[in-house]
Design brief:
The complex is a heterodimer of chains A (221) and B (222). Chain A is mainly α and 221 residues long. Chain A has a single domain, classed as MetI-like (MetI-like fold, Orthogonal Bundle), CATH 1.10.3720.10. Helices cover 81% and strands 0% of the residues of chain A. Chain A is flat. Chain B has one domain: MetI-like fold (Orthogonal Bundle). Chain B has eight helices and no strands. The longest helix of chain B has 39 residues. The relative contact order of chain B is 0.14. Chain B is mostly helical and 222 residues long. Helices cover 80% and strands 0% of the residues of chain B. The termini of chain B are far apart. Classes of the chains: A mainly alpha (221), B mainly alpha (222). Chains A and B meet through helix 2, helix 3, helix 6, helix 7 and helix 8 of A and helix 2, helix 3, helix 7 and helix 8 of B.
Chain lengths: 221, 222
């Protein structure tokens, strides 16, 4: 079987898998951003209880493997009466895991906003939530965008694990193709190229574009 | 569902054994990664532009595609061309190459953090290139690299469960096997999580201490 024939027969399944991977990627990124903002800001809260909750979340998700968390959410949570379908369990596990890394980025970026900005907001008698929303967060956002670029690639890579709980993503499809045809180089090689193209030609330029856009909006060119 | 301590104790010997295998896999993979990372970074610093570009792109490719996929690739593609690898060999190669790519970036960051004047001074007093690296560049590149290297040591440990998919009998593999035998997943998967936390949190702390020690020893405290 030539490679062209291979693509002819299995191209449809590869495309279906890629679409599922992209869905998982977007949903996991959404969960990660929400979790990172929530727990990253909680980590900086004055209340020790909020801080402790955030530390527990961050250390737990950074201290164990994504695969362990995914299996735990999918196989163990149902025993406590929380049953998630595999698609939801997949992006939720990836998102919560990466959100813990993201929370540290949020914390670092907020702390990296120059002290004068905090003091100026205070001097203008801004309410704390206004100070955060209008002064600190927009600047922190710019500071943390470059490391988020790396994290988002990690999210894309992380979604490959959902294949192990039988979500029919790209990884799952090529594994099935490999089992039935033993055309391993073609199947896995094509998948590697697809992931690479998504990361290198869509995600990375997308993040660069977002950095430029945000810098312009805040008046730094 | 009841948590059964008696069963946990019954399973303990198997999990201790599997933890040992997980640590061996992480250590073996890391050793390969340390050496390969050095190869990748030095290959990017040769005067040959095509070599630099090819290695650079290869490192990018490895870093932006899933490790799971790379593990499958190494394990299954060999036999197609008559080269059969055991799960352990294939797993260590895959994880070693993957983290070698990451470590090469850490080394690169370290080397680039050495001020240009240091290179020029070494050149001015006619130091051979090997001595320049050994006596001037590496001692200064090391402290900023130690933190990154430590993070990836913990990272490689946390990625070893992926080796279970090709049948390396580490922790995750053992937990899945136990679950399949008994139809109870609560204890095995929770134990795996607890073992990972018990190893990775203290390691992260130890690495932090070690990094400070390296900085002090090399006289680079700020």
């Amino acid at each position: 079987m030539t490679y062209i024939e291979f693509l002819d027969v299995y191209g449809g399944r590869l495309i279906d898998g890629t679409i599922v991977t992209i869905y998982q990627f977007f949903l996991a990124t959404f969960v990660a951003v929400v979790a990172a903002l929530t727990f990253g800001l909680m980590r900086l809260a004055r209340s020790p209880v909020l801080r402790a909750v955030a530390v527990a979340y961050i250390e737990f998700f950074r201290g164990t493997s994504l695969l362990v968390q995914l299996f735990w959410i999918f196989f163990v949570l149902p025993l406590f009466g929380i049953t998630l379908d595999k698609f939801t369990a997949g992006f939720l596990a990836v998102g919560l895991n990466m959100g813990a890394y993201g929370a540290e980025l949020v914390r670092g970026a907020v702390l990296a906003v120059p002290k004068g900005q905090w003091e100026a907001a205070l001097a203008l008698n801004m309410a704390p939530h206004n100070r955060m929303r209008r002064i600190i967060l927009p600047q922190a956002f710019i500071i943390m965008l470059p490391p988020w670029g790396n994290l988002i690639i990690e999210i894309l890579k992380g979604t490959a694990l959902v294949a192990l709980i039988a979500v029919a993503d790209l990884m799952f499809e090529v594994r099935q193709i490999n089992i039935t045809t033993f055309l391993s180089a073609e199947a896995f090689g094509t998948a590697i190229v697809i992931y690479y193209v998504i990361a290198r030609f869509f995600v990375t330029p997308g993040m660069r574009g977002l950095e430029r856009l945000m810098n312009r909006r805040i008046g730094k060119v | 569902m009841e948590w059964r301590w008696d069963w946990v104790w019954e399973l303990a010997p198997r999990f201790v054994d599997a933890t040992g295998k997980t640590l061996i896999a992480a250590g073996g993979g890391y050793t390969i990664a340390i050496i390969l990372g050095l190869v990748f970074v030095l290959a990017q610093r040769t005067p040959l532009l095509p070599v630099t570009l090819v290695v650079r792109e290869f490192v990018e490719l490895i870093r932006s595609t899933p490790l799971l996929l790379q593990i499958f690739f190494v394990y299954y593609v060999g036999p197609q061309f008559g080269l059969t690898l055991s799960p352990w060999t294939a797993g260590l190669i895959a994880i070693g190459v993957h983290y070698g790519a990451y470590l090469s970036e850490v080394y690169r960051g370290g080397i680039e953090s050495v001020p240009k004047g240091q290179w020029e001074a070494a050149k001015a007093i006619n130091l051979p290139i090997v001595t320049t690296y050994r006596r001037i560049v590496i001692p200064q590149a090391l402290p900023p690299a130690v933190a990154g290297m430590g993070n990836y040591l913990v990272g490689i440990f946390k990625d070893t469960p992926m080796l279970s998919v090709i049948g390396v009998a580490e922790l995750m593999h053992t937990a899945t096997a136990v679950g399949a035998e008994s139809y109870r997943y609560l204890e095995p998967y929770t134990m795996v999580g607890a073992i990972f936390l018990a190893v990775s949190l203290p390691s992260a702390f130890a690495i932090n201490v070690f990094e400070k020690w390296v900085r002090r020893t090399l006289g680079m405290t700020k």
